Amino acid sequence: MCRSIKTLRPPAIPEEAGEEEIRAAALQYVRKVSGFRAPAAHNREVFERAVDAVAEATAELLDHLEVRGARAS
User: Fold this and answer.
1) In the chain, where are the structural domains located?
2) Which top-level group of life is the source organism from (predicted)?
3) Interhelix angle for 44-64 vs 19-34, to 10°?
4) Which of 5, 20, 43, 69 shows its CA 20 to 30 Å from the CA of 29?
5) pLDDT for residue 72
6) What is the pairing mode between strands 70-71 and 66-67?
7) What local confidence, expressed as pLDDT, does residue 26 receive?
């Protein structure tokens, strides 16, 4: 889908993904889906809400994934 979004779970990265990494991935996803690198002023609020929602869903996913039979977090 978007080559600049990287895998955020161990062992793909050596440690747990931080808030900044999760938000960066969420921003890239929303940019790709919306087709806008930066939203116009009238779309800024909905764009930011989408980034927040994707970041929250990503953090929840990473917190609950089981990797090789052990919890990822």
Assistant:
1) 19-65
2) Bacteria
3) 130
4) 69
5) 47
6) antiparallel
7) 95
